[in-house]
Amino acid sequence: MTVDLALQLWLQYQAAISRTLMSYEADPSLRQDLAQEAYLALHRSAEKLSQIENKRAYLFRIVHNVVVDHIAGATRMAWQPLEEQHLNELQSDCPSVAFSSQQQNNVLLQAVRQLALSHRQVLTLAMEDIDEKEIADILGISYGAVRVRMNRAKTALQEILQHATAL
Predict the structure, then answer these.
(1) 95: helix, coil or strand?
(2) Treating both helix axes as pointing N-terminal to C-terminal, what angle do 2-12 and 14-24 enclose, rounded to 10 degrees?
(3) pLDDT tens, position by position, for the chain (167 residues)?
(4) Of 46, 52, 66, 63, residue with least CA distance to 5
(5) 132 near 150, Cβ under 8 Å?
(6) Whole-angstrom distance, CA of residue 161 vs CA of residue 133
(7) Cα–Cα distance between 42 and 93 in angstroms, integer?
(8) What DSSP designation does 1 have?
(9) How far, in Å, CA of 166 to CA of 150, rounded?
(10) What is the CA radius of gyration of the chain?
C-alpha cells in the first residue's frame, strides 16, 4: 500500500521533477540517473510516507537532496547547450514558462544554471508554483531565508539575462 502511495506521488509530480532536474543537469543520461536516485530514495522511505503531512514538499526535498549530493560530488560542472528535444520537454506541460520562443527558453535555462545553488533551488521550486512556506519546508530553512534568497535570485537572474541580451 505504501509503495503504491510512493509511485502515485512520483507519477503525479513526474513532469515537475523532470523540469527541476533539467535546471540542474544538462546531460540527459545524468538526469535520468538523478531521477532514479530520487525515486529509490522515495521508495526506501515509503513506509513513513503515509505519516508525512506535506507529501509534495517531502518529495521535492528528496529531489533537491539528490541534486545537492550530485553537485557536491561533481569535480567540475561542464555546461552543455540544451538540445532542442530537451528544450521542448521543458516547454511541454510547464505552467511557469513565460517565454514564447525556444531561443528565449534556452537563454532562461542557461541563466538559471549560472545562479548560485541556493538561488537556483528557490527559483526552480517557485517556477513549479510551490509557495515560499513550502519551499522553506523542502529546503529545511526559514521562511525569511527563502524570501531573501528569492529576492537575490531574481536580482541575479535579471542581471544575467540583461548581460545575455546585451551581447
Answers:
(1) coil
(2) 60
(3) 567 888 999 999 999 999 999 988 888 999 999 999 999 999 998 888 889 999 999 999 999 999 888 887 764 445 555 566 665 665 565 554 443 456 777 788 888 889 999 999 999 999 899 999 999 999 999 999 999 999 999 999 999 988 877 76
(4) 46
(5) yes
(6) 27
(7) 23
(8) -
(9) 24
(10) 16
